[in-house]
Amino acid sequence: MTIPAPEILALGCIVLPLLCGGLVALAGRYPDLRETITLATGILVFAFIVGIYVEVAQGARPQIFLAHFLPGIDFALEVEPLGLIFALVAGFLWPVTSLYAIGYMRAHRERNQTRFYACFALSIACAMGVAFAANLVTLFVFYELLTLATWPLVTHAGTPEAKRAGRLYLLILLSTSIVLQLLAIAWTWQAAGSVDFRLGGILQGRMSEGVAALVFCLFAFGIGKAALMPFHRWLPAAMVAPTPVSALLHAVAVVKAGVFTLLKVSVYIFGPGFLLASGGGRIIAFVAGFTIVVASVVAIYKDNLKARLAWSTISHLSYVILGAGLATVWGVAGAALHIVMHAFGKITLFFCAGAVLVATHRKRISELDGIGRKMPLTMGAFAIGSLCIIGLPPLGGMWSKWSLALATVDAEQWVLLAALLLSSMLSMAYLLAIPVRAFLYPAAAKEPKDASRSGEGPGESPAEAPIACLVAIGITSIGCVALFVFPDPLFDLIGQVVPLHR
Amino acid sequence: MSLPAGLEAQLPALQIVVPLMAALIAALLRHPRWAWWPATIAGFASCAIALLLAKSAARGEVTIYALGGWIAPFGIEYRIDALNALVLVIINFASLFALVHARRSVAAEIRPERIHWLYCAWMLCLTGLAGMTITGDAFNVFVFLEISSLASYILVASGPKRDALLASFRYLIPGSIGATFFLIGLGLLYMQTGTLNMADIAQRIGEGGTDRTIAAGALFVVIGIGVKAAIFPLHAWLPSAYEQAPSSVAAFLAGASTKVSLYVLMRFIFDIFGIDLAFGALDIDLLLMVLAIASVVAGSLVAVQQEEVKRLLAWSSIAQIGYMTLGMALGNPAGIAASALHLFNHALMKVALFLAIGNFVYRTGSSALGSLVGAGRGMPWTMAAFVVAGMSLVGVPLTAGFVSKWYLLAAALERDLWPIALLILVSSVVAAIYLWRVASAAYEPAPADSPAATIVEAPWTMLAPLLLLALANLWFGVDPSPVLRLAEQAAVQLSVPFESAEIIAPSPLSDTN
Amino acid sequence: MAENFLDAYPWWGSIVLLSIGLYVVMASRNYIKKVMGLSIFQTAVFIMYIQIGAMEGATAPIVDAHHSLYANPLTHVLILTAIVVGVATAALALALVVRIHAAWGSIEEDDIVRAAKREEAER
Predict the structure, then answer these.
(1) Touch of A by C (3+ CB pairs closer than 8 Å)
(2) Does residue C20 sit at the B interface (CB-CB below 8 Å)?
(3) Hey, what's the torsion of the CAs at B396, B399, B405, B409, to 10 degrees?
């Protein structure tokens, strides 16, 4: 059997989810068929990405030209290592999340499931486009489409709260991207005469350092999906979405598309050396450090489980931004690694939160006392995910945190190092408290309000979540461990972008 | 397709004669339903003529047609280059799409015994607009300007409500003053140069230098045309005129009439006065830039507050006119190309938006935002087209609006005017907000007592032009090259002093690594 | 100075007319008066045009052995066109005023604005 050319595979990664979205919409009346299509496409897409990986790991850079868009700017794709890392993560977690969603959506008896699966597939197509875009304008197109494709998912519930969240979501993401990001892109185009991603950057020597610092700030704030303060409000609001959406999109695909874009801008548009010289990276690194600490503190005070996870996500996105802003070798490596590690850890946590919600209808952390005895697998996985996020061995999160810490030491930014360590401790406080309560505290007393709502039984005698959910949780928590043991493929890919002295 | 050589040579004249004849026939037919046919057939014919003219203009050729065989500067000549070929395409297609839509829409909105007069006025208006665009004689511009203006006062006055009469009167007064200002300006120019042929005036201004008479003439011309182009603060007539006109007519006027005035402005500034006089000695660029910014700001901010969708779209037009003026005021080839491109793209989106609202008015008789609630369910195609055209207006990538916005941005940044770039972007977010208000209202569930609850989709003759335009918005967003070619050609032809034919691309990046 | 001033009397005439016309259009609240103001305004421009073509001692542009100096005929032709346009505009405007009177019962701006406001309030 011959493997098709990587170019075709890369195109397939975008086209297949699109087709899948269409097919799902057509197959809406047969839930089993609909979900089989989703799962099968997911697995196929991941297989495609692995196929691309084989080529790219050997140094290939598949390029696909789609159309002439504007004069001098093509609509084109190019696979490079950072994009591949993002695609690998999103592509692997999509089928896993689909599996989870099947259990979750059915158990939760959500309405409009067809729209849900269709938009989900479209969002993945856009995320793949972001991953493989060959230039800023192509990336911008997919970035905007991703916002639009995920909007129906955020407002899925159709309640006034969901609509309000949807408005905020669109307003912040569209206005930041249109006003700041597009301005930055046009400025780049004007200065460099190109918007292509190139190793080493395209702006060096074509823009004064002061302007470059300003443009980098425009990028950093303009990429609203990266949730850098003060443009972070949409993320907690978007948590009204069903849990699989929060899990895949608002812990992995959408937010990571944001930080990934910024990483790409810093590596391929500015180039680490120029970014360092301009000082723009440092400004953003400090804003990121501020965001890291503040979001962690806010997370501690959130009693709603998903809200706490959302604030934790804001904090951890800024880890990546910090790495991208520092732009040292280890900064870039840490940022890229953290995209992966945090994805696995956070998706596990969201899966667990959803599983608890499905099984017990409980959303608040204060209601979770003693639940670990009834749902040991779920809460065990939660503990693993938490440790991964905090960055303790033997979990994948350790590598990224270690690299980022190294980066701050390299850059001699002790304040940022302190921010990182402080936030690690804070995350211990806000994350580990949950499994501790679940396993060690006595079970909560009966709550009449809760009992009346879930009269069918599971509220009072919580059992484990649906089997599909558990399998998904299992896969991602094993992933957290596996990434600790086998990080080499990732390091190899990153090594193609920045010189890692290992 | 090949035409007999004799006919092909007559195309510029036919561009005027065909709609003029149609106007006559429509008036003579005196029948509410038959009158539509000559207008539409003429519409198709003049679209074809415009395309043929544009085809040779895109190659960079300038077609010159001496009217009655009198050679310029003694006779009147028609002169078609890339810029006015593009404008001809815009107005003819805007008119055609609106005409196809009008058959049902107009019949529902105005009294049958007046319908044939409406089509007669419509064709006269098209004649006037095409004439303003095609002619190479400055005084001829005035004559055609008045033909189109008088016809459009009639068109506005034929609106269904009695407010339409007021709107028309309030359009007539500033419109006539503007036209007379234009006439004064022409008189002063003639006094000093002794000619009315555009190319001749340009040459003599170039040779003889400038004095106060010419300067005063230039300002009178700019202000006079500014009224017709509805540049802030001369825009007051526009919102109620568009609101009160019959829906199809509003679409036609929004797509065609202000565009032509902007074109005339461009022609006078860049071709006749020349950049040295207009921007160097007179600082018209500064004037236009300030007014353009004011148009964008005022138009956007007022549009957000409107409760009447047609009025909202009219205010949005004022903001968009600001964009086009801005491109002109930037004065660099990229800016001119952006302006020319936006003339086209704005026609695409605004005509679509007005037609969509026209469909809604056809079903419910109202265009208030409140009565639109829930219309998305009953009229899925209409509202989908509205959303697509709206996204284009906002400038979402892969729609036509993005391309012209990108050009305008690049033009502003090329001149290091980043606050203007920022303004363009912020105003497109404001556009997103006001269109969002309409779209989200349409997709709310309809209250049981509202007309939108039982609404059904518009007939296909009204739907077809709308959907075609929506598709065009997407098509030209992905592949803008046909229009781009004309727009860039126009920029090259207008701003001769610029040496490079390569428009927007700055020096390409050398192939390092 | 004074000579210059007086020499330019056709200019002054047309400028005064122009100002009067413009003032009437802007300030008058009666629609008929507005239209009349517009006509005066346009007429002022016609005068301006005609005197552009005029010249001391020149005669009508009919070739004749006794004369060698002719007035420029082109401006006259232009202004004939402009007069036609002006008449058409005035006619259309007056027709509109008639229709407005039929529909609103008044041709006074103030009355109509009041009526429109009342209508708005009822809705």
Answers:
(1) no
(2) no
(3) 70
* C75 close to B (CB below 8 A): yes
Up-side HSE of residue A129: CA atoms within 13 Å toward CB? 28
Say if residue B505's pLDDT is above 50. Answer: no
In this structure, chain C runs to a length of: 123
d(CA A407, CA A420): 11
Identify the domain containing residue B453 by its residue range. 286-497
* DSSP assignment of A157-209: T-SHHHHHHHHHHHHHHHHIIIIIIHHHHHHHHHHHS--B--TT-S-TTTS-H
Contact B187, C48 (CB under 8 A): yes
Burial of B417 (0-12, 13-18, 19+ CB in 10 A): middle
What would the mean pLDDT of A322-335 be, rounded to a whole number?
A: 86
Cα–Cα distance for residue pair A302/A310, rounded to 1 Å? 10
- C35 lies in which domain range? 2-122
CB contact under 8 A, B513 and A144: no
B433 in a structural domain: yes
Pairwise CB contact (< 8 Å): B173 & C49: no
Spatial neighbors of A15 by CB under 8 A, at least 6 apart, are A125
CA distance to B262, C84, C86, per residue, from B146 (Å)? 16, 10, 9
Work out how many domains chain B is built from and give that number.
1
Interfacial residues of B (vs A; Cβ cutoff 8 Å): 394-398, 403, 406-407, 409-410, 413-414, 418, 421-422, 425-426, 428-429, 432-433, 436, 478-481, 484, 488, 503-509, 512-513
The residues that bridge with A63 in the sheet, in sequence order, are: A78
- Conformational region of residue A46, where left means phi above 0, alpha means psi within -120 to 50, and beta covers everything else: alpha
Sign of CA dihedral A139, A140, A142, A147: positive
| Residues of chain A contacting residue B484, judged by C-beta atoms under 8 Å apart | 71
Task: Chain B: give the shortest CA distance to residue C81, in Å.
Answer: 8
Place of tokens 């709603």: A304
Whether the Cβ atoms of residue B88 and residue B347 lie closer than 8 Å to each other: no
Of B403, B425, B506, Cβ closest to residue A179: B425
* Coil, helix or strand at residue B74: coil
Q: Do the Cβ atoms of A141 and B481 come within 8 Å?
A: no
% of chain A at pLDDT higher than 70: 95
Q: How large is the ipTM?
A: 0.92
Judge contact between B264 and B225, C-beta under 8 A: yes
Split into its structural domains, chain C has a count of: 1
Question: What amino acid occupies position B9?
Answer: A
> Which of A66, A70, A135 has the highest number of chain B CBs within 10 A, making it the mutation to test binding with B?
A70
User: Do residues A384 and A480 touch, judged by C-beta distance below 8 A?
Assistant: yes
Strand partners, B368: B308
What number is the average pLDDT over the span A357-378?
79
| C96 at interface of B, judged by CB pairs closer than 8 A | yes
pTM of the model: 0.87
Domain segments of chain A: what residues? 6-495
Task: Give the bridge partners for C59, in sequence order.
Answer: C70
CA distance B429 to A474: 43
Give the tens place of pLDDT for each residue, B351-375: 999 999 998 888 888 888 888 887 8
Partners of B474 on chain A (C-beta within 8 Å) are none
C47 contacts chain B (CB < 8 A) = no
Residue C91: how many other CB atoms lie within 10 Å:
12
CATH code of residue C68: 1.10.287.3510
What is residue B51's predicted lDDT score, i.e. its pLDDT?
Answer: 92
CB contact under 8 A, B508 and A202: no
